[in-house]
Amino acid sequence: MDIHLQYTEKGHGETLVLLHGNNDSSSYFEKQINELSEYYRVIAVDTRGHGRSPRGTAPFTLRQFVEDLEFFMEDHSIDRTHLLGFSDGGNIALMFTLKYPHKVKKLILNGANLTPSGVKPLYQSAIEAEYFLLDRIFGKSEKLTKRREMLSLMVNEPNINAGQLAKINTPTLVIVGTDDMIKVSETAAIHNGIKGSELKLLKGSHFVSREHPEEFNAAVLDFLGR
Fold first, then answer.
1. Domains, the chain, ranges and CATH?
2. What CA–CA distance (Å, rounded) separates 61 from 178?
3. Residue 212 near residue 204, CB atoms below 8 Å
4. pLDDT value at position 137?
5. Residue 136: per-residue pLDDT
6. Which residues face 175 on adjacent strands?
7. Beta-bridge partners for 45
8. In Å, what is the CA distance from 39 to each residue of 7, 16, 79, 167, 170?
9. How far is CA 54 from CA 7, 47, 84, in A?
10. 10-residue averages of pLDDT along the chain (226 residues)
11. What CA–CA distance (Å, rounded) separates 53 from 50?
12. Minimal CA–CA distance to 85: which of 196, 220, 179?
């Protein structure tokens, strides 16, 4: 492994790892960490090339981020954890659970998708337009190169086969905003694909955990406490 991920840790008890979304950092969960850490050992991780974590030389892909998380857990002697992922973090959490099911106690997916087509066209078309524009001027600057890498995660990934979801036996909560950028059909595919999963709709956008933290945190604590 060519990097060590940076993170924020607070609280005691069972471990709860938080994974942020694309082009963000662990600070995304500032409205979750304090409250959730009253009941759990909360570890909010900065994904490779995000926040305070270095980019390293390994591929900049969700699959690599899964391996980074596995290494992080091994490096910090975390045998099993509750796992909460938002957006790309949700995709990483889902892929991690598929590959390392024995390492996840409970799974919470907030605004996750199976493929790029699971994002509503209004949003996905804008992402793709910027990506292909930067592709034409690729190499002009380090800043543009980094932005292009971030966009590539949403243009080319994830690529999760819905049929794989039936393999998941981990207790799972799927949370989305009523006006989420993820298609309703995509959320339904995830919820229906994971047997026994729970679905929670909260009024708000893709960023409902920031918009309505009290409701979001209550849903998380209720699920984890059962």
1. 7-114+161-225 (3.40.50.1820)
2. 29
3. yes
4. 76
5. 79
6. 110, 200
7. 7, 19
8. 19, 10, 19, 29, 21
9. 12, 9, 22
10. 93 98 98 98 98 97 98 97 98 98 98 98 97 77 89 98 98 98 98 98 98 98 96
11. 6
12. 220
